[in-house]
Structures are given as C-alpha cells and as structure tokens.
Amino acid sequence: MLKSNLYQEEQFPSPLRQTWYEFRKSHLAFIGLCILASITLIVILGPFVTPYSPLTQNTDALLVPPAWDGNGGISHVLGTDGLGRDVLTRVIHGSRVTFGISVFLVLVAMLIGVLIGAFAGMNTGMRSSILNHLLDSMMAIPTLLIAIIIVAILGPGLVNSMWAITLALIPQFIHYTRDFVRTEVNKEYVIAARLDGASPARIFVFSLLPNMVEMLVVQGTLALSIAILDISALGFLNLGVQSPYAELGAMLSEGLDIAYIAPWSIAAPGAAIFIAIISINVVGDGLRSALRNRLKY
Amino acid sequence: MKIKVFYRQILATLLTLTGVVACGGNHDLKFKDEGLIYCSEGSPTSFNPQLDTSGTTVDATSHQLYDRLLEFDPQDSKIIPGIAESWRVSENGLHYTFQLRKQVAFHETNYFTPTRHLNADDVIFSINRWRLESHPYHDIDVSGYPYFVSLGLDKLIKDVRRINGYRIVIDLNKPDSSFLANLATDFAIILSKEYAEFLLEKNQPQLLDEKPIGSGPFKYINYRKGRFIRYAKHENYWKHDRAVKQLIYDITPSSSLRLAKLMTGECDVMSLPAHSELDIIRDRNNLVLDEKPGLNVGFWAFNTSKPPFDNPEVRRALAMGIDKTTLLEAVYFGSAVKANGLVPPSSWAFQEDLRDNSYNPVLAKDLLRKNGIEPGFTMNIWAMPVERAYNPNATMMAELIQGYLEQLEINVEVISFEWSLFRRRLDSGAHDSVLIGWSADNGDPDNFYRPVLSCAAIESGTNRARWCNETFDEIIDEALTYSDTDTRAALYQTANAIIADQIPIVPIAHAYRFQAYRQGLSNLEINPFGGIRFGDVENTQ
Amino acid sequence: MSFYFLRRLNLLVFTLFMLAMASFGLAYLFPGDYLTNLTGIHFESEQQRQLYATLYKESDGVFWQFIAYLDLLWQGEWGQSFSSNQPLYQEVTTYLPASIELSAYALFVSLVVGIPLGFLAGLRHNKLADYSILSMSFIGYSIPVFWLALILILILSLQMGWFPISGRISLLYYIPLDTGFILIDIIRSDVSYKWDAFNDALRHLFLPTLSISIVTSTIILRITRRSVIEVMGSEYIKAATARGLNRYQVILRHGIRNTIIPIMPQLALQFTTLLTNAMIVESIFSWPGIGNWLIQAIYQGDYPSIRSGMLAVSSLVVIFTVSIDIVHKIIDPQRLYRQRVKI
Predict the structure, then answer these.
(1) Does a cis peptide bond (omega within 30 degrees of 0) precede residue A244?
(2) Residue B201 belongs to what domain range?
(3) What chain C residue is nearest to A226 in terms of C-alpha separation?
(4) How many CB pairs under 8 A join B and C?
C-alpha cells in the first residue's frame, strides 16, 4: 500500500500485472519465455513452412549429414534419416505431435483434477477421507511409472499412452485444488458469498476459481514438462506413438539403430525435447518465484 | 573439430564433478582371454537343430554342440568326412554305407555322465527320431522336424541298418542326388542314445532338446532366454584340444547394439552386421570384416491361400509396382545382387537369362483395376523384426514398399512384432504378404526350390506363400533323380518359368554374407551354408 | 501417534489389497483364457486345464477364486511367463534386485553430489555461485534421461572406449546369484577372479548410475537449497548469530541439522523417481532389471509377466512410501501431511 502511494500511480497494478513485473525481473525466466514463445510459433507455423513431408521417403538422399558437415547440403539443414526423410521436417512435425498432445493432456487432466479436487475440498467425511488417502499414495508414485503400468495393462499405442499419462497427471491437480479450496473456503469472501445464498458450484466458479488461476498456471507448466517427458519416454520405449509417425521420443528410438553413423538423427529430436522442457521449467520456476516475491509485499 | 572440443569440456566437468577417474580402457584381464563372447541376434528356439530351420537356432547349436556324419569344407563346399570316416554309395544309388570314427566322446556335464563313446546306435537313433513316427522320441517336441519333412527325407529313407558297432547302411526308396549333401547340413546332427534312454528312465524326455548332450567342441553349461547361453570347452573333443575355455552367446537383438558392443570390446564376434554399418567396421583398425557372396534369397511372399492374392494377375501387378534396384540400394547398401529367381549366381543351377518383371507402375495400376482391386484397397506386409543375412532390415524394406504401393493407391499396413510370436502367427497363415527369405543349408539347388515353394513345405512352415503347384512339385522331384547337373539345370529352368508365370513370391536380392570380429581371432570363417563354427577359433592375442 | 501408525498401516494393507485385486482382475481383462493368463500355461489338454481349475477354484464364485489367488500369491505360486516358461516368482526375484541395486547406488551418488551443492547454493543465496549452480541444475533436471544415456554412451563408450555399455558384468565371469545384488554376490562368492569381477562390475555400473543420478542429484540439490534458504532466514539462526556465533558455528550447530531433517523423507522419496528412470535406462544399457523385463513382457504380450511385474513394482513403491511416511513421523512428529516436493 505504501509503495503505490510513493509512486503516486493512478491505478494500482492488478495482481496479474504485478506477477508479470516480478517475472520480467529475472532475465533467465524471460529468455525462457521467449524460447517457449518461438517454439510455440514454430510448432504452429512450421508445417506450412517446411518444404518436405515428414513421411515422404527419398531414396536418393539417405543419411545426408547436416548442413555444417562437409558432406551435407543446404537442402537438408539437419540431414536426413535412414529412409531419406528430412530430419528438420520430422523434428518440427514430431514436436507438434509431442507438444500438442502434451498440452492437450495437461488441459484434460487439469479439468478433471480441478473438478474432483473442488468436490473433495468442499466436502468432508468418509468419502473425502478415502480419496485423500488414496491421493497421498498416488502422489508419491512418479507419473511415468503409473503411465508405464497403465500402458502395460492397456497395451502399447498412442491413444492408450495418452490415457495413461492423463490418468497419471490427474492426482496432482486434485491435490492442489483440494488444498487450495480447503484453505480458502473459510475466508471471509467465500463466507460472504455463501451468506448471499450462492450454491457450492457458484461459489467455486465465481469466488474460488479466479483466485486459483495463478496456482493452476504454475502447476500446469510443471505438469506440461512432466507430460512431455513422459510421452516421449513412452515413445522412446516403443510403447506410445508407433512408427512411421513422427514423434520425438519415437524418432529417438528409430535413430538408435543408426546412432553411430548418423548421430544427428538422435541429436536433433533429443535436443528439441530438451530445449522445450528446459524453457518450460525455467518459465515455471520464474513464475513461482515471481508469485513468491509478489506475496512478500 | 568443434564438437570434439565440446565433448572434452563436458567430459572434464563430469569427471571433476563425480571425482571419478576412469580406469584405463582396454586393460585386458588374463582370465578374460580364455573365453570368447559372441553377440548373437536372438534366442534359439531349441538346443536341437533337428527341430528348427531358423539360422539363430543353427548358429547357437549345430556346430558348437554336435557332430554330423559328413561336413562341408568351408573353403570349397565339398563334402568331407565328419563322424563318418569313409562312405560308399551303391551303383544304383540306393544304398549308402558309412564307416564311423572310433573314440568320439560325448559331453560330460553335471546332469549326465556318458559311459561309452559314440557308435552306430547313436547315429541310428538320431536318424530314426525324425524318420519314424513310432519312435519314442518322435513326438516329444510339438514343433516337428521342418527341415527333413520339407525335403521329404523322412519318406525317402527306407531303412537304416546296423552292420556292426561302427558301420551302418542307409537304404533309400529312390535315388536322390542331394542325399549326401543333406546329411552334411546343420540339421543332421548326432544325438546320444544313451542320454535319451537315461532321460526316458527319469521320465523327462523333453530335456533331450533343452539340456543337450552332443559330441561337439563345446558343452552346455546354462542358458537364460533372451540373455545368454554359456558353453564350456569339451575336454575330450575328438578332433583337437584347441577350443577356447568358454564360449558365451550374448543375445542382443539390436544390430547397432551388437556393433557397439563389438567396438567397446564386450563381444569378440558379432552376428549379422547391419549393411549400413559395414563402413564403420571397415574403418576401425581393431575390427575385421569378412565377406562372401551368400547362398540365400530374400523375397516378398504373397499368401496365395487368401483372396485376392490367390490371383496370379494381382500378384504380378504388385510385383511390377516395386523397384527392386532402389530397394537394393536402400536396404542392402549395394552389398547384394538383384534376384530374378530363387537361386543365386554362385549356384550351378543359376539361370542367367531369366526375365524379370520390370518396374512399371502404370501397367501395374491397369492390371490391378482389371482384376477388381479398387483404389484404397488395404493389405498388410509382415516384416521380420530381426535382421537376417538375406534381409538386413525388413521393416525398412516394408516401409519403402509401402511408399511404392501408395502410388498404386493401395494402403499398406506394416506389421512387425517379436520374432518367435511372429513366426507362430505366420505359420497360421494370418498374413497377406511377408518379407522373408531363405538361406541355403547345403549347396544343392533343390534346397531352394523344395523348402520355399513345394506343397509339403506348407505344412512344415517354410513355404510362406502357401503356394502349391503339382507340376512344379513333379519337376523338382524329377530333377532329384538325375545326378547329371546339366539335365537338372534344364529341369530347374522349367521350374523357374512356372514361378515367373505364377509369381507366388517376388525374389528381391541375394545378399552378401558378412562376419565381423575383433582382431586377434583366427580360423573364424564364413560357412557358406548356414551355421557359424567356433570349434577351431583361437585367440592369438 | 499410534493412531497415526494404525491409519498408515491400514492404508498400506488396503492399497496392497487393491493392487492384488487389480492384478486378479487383469487376468479377466486380458485377451484369452483367464486361467491361462493366471498360470501362464497354454493348456494342451482339458485334463491339464482341469488340474489348474481346481487349484484356482474355478467352479466357485469370483470371490473364492480371488481368495485362492491371494493364497497362491502368498505361497509364491505366481504362475509362469509365456515367453520363458520360468516361474514368475523366480523371475521377479532375480530381476527386481538388479533394479533396486542400480537405484540404490544412484540414490547414494545423488545424495553425495546433491546435498553439498545444495548447501553451497543455499548459503550463497543470490550470489554468483548460487546462480551458476541453479542454472546448471535446470539443465540437469530438464534433460530427458534416455537422451542423456545415449549421449553418454556415444561419448564415453564409443568415442573413448572407457566403459562397457551393456549388462551388469562381463558374461565371462560366472557369478552364482545369491542375493541378486551383484556386488554383494561377488564379494560373497569364492571364485578365483573375484577382484577382477568386482572391478568389471563397477565399470558396468558407472554409466547407468551416472545417467540416472545426474537428474536426481539436481532435484536433491534444489530441495536442499530451498530448505537451506528457509532455515538460514529463520529467527533462530538470526538469534544464534546475535549470540555472537560465527557463520561456520551457526551452520554447523543449527543449520545442517535443521535443514536436513525436514527434507530427509523427501530425499528418500526420490528413490521412486530413480526407480522409474532406472526402468528406462535399463532398456538402454540392457541391464537385467525389472523395467527392462516388464517392457519386454509388454512387447511380447506376456500377460502373466505383466500382471505380476506390475504387482511387484507397485507394491514395492507403495510399501516404500508408506514406510518413509512412518519414519518421517517418528523423526518429525510435528508434520501432519507429507508435502509435495518443492524444487
């Protein structure tokens, strides 16, 4: 309060805006955000720009090295794989699959998790207690392990692995929503709404949800990096996307066979996953410390 | 260059971080030198090669554990004495007399101690096991005896007679010019009758094929499926005392991993190097790469028992839709010759002027439409999950064919799963078409025609096209009754014409055979027919 | 307190029971005959099937079938694998220790590397050392473990030829399996080449351990750092400083203990993450562990193996986490709920 008076601002910055100011202070986080934005742009626009199709084989150009290598050429910037497919094109299309699916899965898991979490948080008693107990155990198990077990049961395949990862991601959203609802539900603004006669659903949607958005964004980035790792790990283990479709993890495992003659075939998809995850993590971390700093005032 | 510097930087950081100083690389230990590790491509289905025709089983068992009556000379492929010191063929070609070697000892292991040396009883037992359905051991294993049955050897032999302890006579129903060669194949091994009787008494006859006893240079110690086989030297091997103390099969399905292990010294020898990786092996000073033209054929077989593939015109159209030359370059990296027929150029039955369907997608499309195959038709191609000499990368070939058939507006589903499951389902005829092949087990051309395309071979599971043509069978039967190669070659040309007309299979390539091992091993030679031999290998380092 | 233990134990039993039930249900859900899925035997005759049908109480209701299944599970009769025809109990008990061994060494390395670095970063909070360690740690925990393993193989094994890339030990050394933990087995064995074998096993361990522990040590580093920052900012540290203790005395007497104790269970929980990463790394390094085995079983449609492998791995993880919970409670009775690791 004191601060705003000091600067005599006409309008007090909204919490969101404050977070943004804090976030921007960290150069690392800001760079991460820029990288993330460009990745998003490439993934969305890439397929319209790439001159090749990710599935078209070119037997005249097998295992062409990347452009900076003596034997490489500018027509295939990152070289080609064992079937003459352009690696750059495949990485872009693969990123689209990997990242696109991950975002989708996180959104679905978030939706389901928040619903169940809100339900658990606003109810007490036996049902809620059982749920809490189960959740506590689930939280301790790495999502990938849950996903592998679910894929083991459902059988390998893209759709099955999507189910598996969604199911594995849900518990943490339930957990955080429940905890959040628990702490907030007895605060004055909620009680006020309740005294106004609002139904629990209405309280949740209009009073609690707006306050949860930041927490969900932070958890969402965390879940996103986990989802990308998991889906590419399943692809790598040949339990997820099946060839010939381009998916970064599956591309890595395909590249394994020619790793010693064509290292670029594993370097490129691996680097794509790595860059995406690191930028998401950096942004997530930046957001978290921005929130932490904002709440200090 | 830059990348190398980068590597070094990472390395330095890692090493300081973890405080670990790597102990010097190839500092070889004395104990290790007494053994040999072979990185093989898969698990054998049995320890008895009579029961299976797959190269993996043969490589793992035949020449390591067992002996045969006759052998092929690895240099010139002539038939030379094995357990049989000498042999005689009667004038009419119906009676074969073999004089057996004395002092041939069987393995002594912790599960069996032999009391006598190999003699005529063991030979008769081994042949009768697959020949006579009434034999107590005939039905012990459900897999049957695919090699002998597909060649009709069980019907060919009339009787096996014991003259004395070390002499036997085999009587045939009709003359067969490939008979001796068949006895020298990897499958015609000699088992121990004494061990078999011992097991019958213990009521565990199935152990004959699981815990083997033979007379070969190595004896069985233990085995973990999918992981390793451990053999030890047979101390009383009749031929010599040079064999290495331990022979280990490190089962490694991925060829790149096998190569990596060869490079790091975890294997001494690797099976089936990928054609794409040959140059890497050539570039390494400490590795040796041997090559020889192989007696094999890789082909694309249509399941002729399934419509619309029962129609030769459809098969012809599909055959015209693919460009073999490109497949050869992409899959074999040029280390193969294009196949027009079944028999490779190194065989005397090779027909030089055999015509081939040239690549013609336009005509192919026409032909398909005429025969009622509409655009959007979906078929599957089963691709072997393992590398074989005749097809180093079936999945990649299938994907390339997928690309070709797309131009004919045919959708292709590539199907591949774990090898033993794959073959089991293939036996049931679930496929539309399959990419597979055949490696010769002896130098006789009959060994190509009969197992791959004869009617009897459908049952024994080597005729993947499930194609049965009586005229064809008659011709190849007739060819066996002559011993003169010119007459036989003429008959095989007629057979070739039938294949070219019917196209049950599309021959694709005769691949070279390769063998890679580390420097310092001697006497490791490519066996022209089938299995690898480690008995004579020495470590000279 | 005892009420808490009871509740935890209750939860443990309940979860294990659910897992057993799920694995029993799987036998019905997987394609094929449920009895074949339970026993792993493709019956050749009706007679043979009948034999097992009585053993598994097929004619009784599902409930009694389940009881019979539990009983057989308890006796170690888990059925046999489709692909190897070996008893599953034996398979799991040979493969599981290999994974646990790898994860345990990796956890040890991660703790040894992660905690000191975490302290260093935490104590130099907002200084150059902190920033550089923190930035490095981003790399560590963002790198996909399977890619890292591949790169390590390419550089350290294939380029430099320093380390072997597959298995636990060269197959030439014949070490009888006893405990299932290779290093212990070597020491206990009485073969002549004991120390050669030990050295060889260590060299085989190096790369898998390194690839798993890089990821985990950065996580441990970040947990430690966070905790150090919190502790160093707390009132009692300020009080200790005010009492005139110098910085090292403060850290030694108050800092370390108060930092480590609250995060100890969280560090131990990293074991499950390690185990998961180990399952992936195993398939790259052909490590004969449970992950490699389970993934092979998935490829081959080996339902009995999937069923028991899943049961074994998830039971291990559940038992482990609940025991950590209880130990946590004993060390630090104040804490009510376990918190999700903050990194």
Answers:
(1) yes
(2) 67-210
(3) C142
(4) 91
